[in-house]
């Protein structure tokens, strides 16, 4: 009783009660503060976590061909697209109790305070993954009290509104790994040239160590420091049960193969093609510049990387390095319109001007298949005849005169057939046909073939004097190659946004716009420039590259004083080539005039190597008969030359050739031939383009 009445005892008890009351109040206030802060964070809603991300461009086979960014490589991948070893390594070294704390780790904070007190310096961090993520998203890295308070609040907002999986995924996609790479996908590609999901244990442990200090632990800056931290992380992973001790030791001794900054080199793949893709993202799909550059898009293109390489190699092989001749090439899949390869010049670094899609040049005789399609459509047949001789045309009520000339001033001075005129590229025949049909006919037919450039209704239009783009001509020939269905050049098949939503997908269906029977007849005539020489006659326009061909091709060359063209195709591949000088300088040298043809044939032969020959299959409305090409009549056994020729049913000749010629080596040919085993039309002309 004396102790209870002792005034000192009673005072001590009061102080204890007071301290307990203060403690209880502090706890209540603390819980209330935490609860209130949490509720405020919850009511404030989820903080925005969108960040700028690199837009990635993919070839048709899924390989990366380029990217767009502002100097920071960022790619967002889902957590299940990241190697589990990388996730475990990060948790082991950065935040062991990530799944059990609410954004702050009291035990780690206490440990850090003790370590700092003992060292009398800042030696150990206590930030959790949630805190680091908040800092990366919303704050600078300055070490001030205000920043710490903001960091704490944003951390609570993240924890209150997002799941642990979402926070971990966000952290791994935003943390800095050095050398301009943000996020594990960018780091994985940069250091190892592989996706984050494909990282193995020793690679994952090394990457997990970099964020602590990219300038210190990057293996490209200090391999020894990076390796020491990797081994520390592997030991921690074993200690925490993520891996066994044996696995840790094996990973520590594993050889590390770096890719360096190989990913940077991907930006040089098909730069002219990628420029067109960017233009279409804006003009066709309607995306703004910032979304394209920093929106984290995945852009799937039609590019065939292997074919693109073939094109680039053939251009380098054909045109001498010191030549000022420029070139452009477009390779398309005619059925879909997919542009599989494209170059707009010989060196993108010297000139980014895209001569395939921007330059306007005269197509020369490559316009003639469109003219002759119109002629067939209006009653001409492959054996319709005009006289080939030097001719002066008078028009505009006699006020204007026009005298077209053949190449090297060579004329038949006789009647020739349409198929002869096409194979020889006879200019007089073309102009006569053009004027016979009416000059508006070629303009209208060209529009049907998808040519949008303005064409002048003049006599010389039949010889390709109105400027067009190479991409337009490649597309026009695609209509012939695919049997007459409308297509347009396609560069982009699909665009996916940063959240995985498809925002664009190519779905346009081809529509039949050309007559399939006439198209087949036209294609078959276009194989004529590659027929073999026979009976001592000089060959036609494909003679210079005939020795290189191993497949059945249809095509047409064209030339003006300043332009050289070659466009040819099979049922599944179209290649268009232009060569010339940017300043409109004349092409005077014979070898320079052959560049386009040689580039074309080398591309086609390489692209189709090892593949079966693709022939144009006759349509139901056509009929094939043996023709004597000099008379245009049905061939008999007495005719010196016979060619299997297709006509629209009902338009084939009904009269027979009966005048034999001496010294014929073809007298014993059968009246009919298998069109799939025998060339349609062999070389028998005296003149060349």
Automatic annotation (TrEMBL):
Residues covered by the Penicillin-binding protein transpeptidase domain: 328-604
Region entry Disordered, spans: 656-677
Main localization (coarse): membrane
Protein name: PBP1A family penicillin-binding protein
Pfam assignment, any one: Transpeptidase
Chemical reaction(s) catalysed: Preferential cleavage: (Ac)2-L-Lys-D-Ala-|-D-Ala. Also transpeptidation of peptidyl-alanyl moieties that are N-acyl substituents of D-alanine; [GlcNAc-(1->4)-Mur2Ac(oyl-L-Ala-gamma-D-Glu-L-Lys-D-Ala-D-Ala)](n)-di-trans,octa-cis-undecaprenyl diphosphate + beta-D-GlcNAc-(1->4)-Mur2Ac(oyl-L-Ala-gamma-D-Glu-L-Lys-D-Ala-D-Ala)-di-trans,octa-cis-undecaprenyl diphosphate = [GlcNAc-(1->4)-Mur2Ac(oyl-L-Ala-gamma-D-Glu-L-Lys-D-Ala-D-Ala)](n+1)-di-trans,octa-cis-undecaprenyl diphosphate + di-trans,octa-cis-undecaprenyl diphosphate + H(+)
UniProt keyword terms in alphabetical order: Carboxypeptidase, Cell membrane, Cell shape, Cell wall biogenesis/degradation, Glycosyltransferase, Hydrolase, Membrane, Multifunctional enzyme, Peptidoglycan synthesis, Protease, Transferase, Transmembrane, Transmembrane helix
